[in-house]
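Handoff note, outgoing to incoming analyst
You'll be picking up this chain. Sequence as last confirmed:
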Amino acid sequence: MYLYHYYDKRTGPCKRITLLPDEESKALLDQIRLERPDSMCAKRDDSYVDKRKKCEAKLKEAFLAKGGLIEIDSPYYFVVEHSPWLYSWYEQPDFIKIPASEIDLRYVSFTYGDSMPTFAVQDGKEYRGQVYTYDEILKIIDKYGLPQNWNDDGAHGPERYIEVHIWKKRFDGES
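Most recent structure output, in case you need it:
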């Protein structure tokens, strides 16, 4: 299994807007809207960062309850395998690709689909509102497959990829 992190080449990888104070995060969203109007990130509304912070709190609480380990307040976001749709979000796209075997998986949680709709959508699917460990997500993948293989266009719901949350300061195989 490979984990992918997508980003705009001009910004660089592994930036986390939720770590910024509210005024700075709003200013950054405004800057993205101005400088990169065709990017998916430019379409986020002013309440996005607050919603994302609340979502991260749910992720953190659920992962800790499962015995997950956390070193940082805001995770690094990746997805399981390549997502053409996510790659298309950026005007100058690039990505990092890491084998899951090179990461301490005790610090990694997963949601089947983006975590925000995972918690917001109430349609009775078993993976809604759920945070998974590595072993648990493998069972869900065996049952449903990778969303980007059956729903890359979003025609069958909001799940287009499996979101990965890395809760470790360093995740590249170094300590």
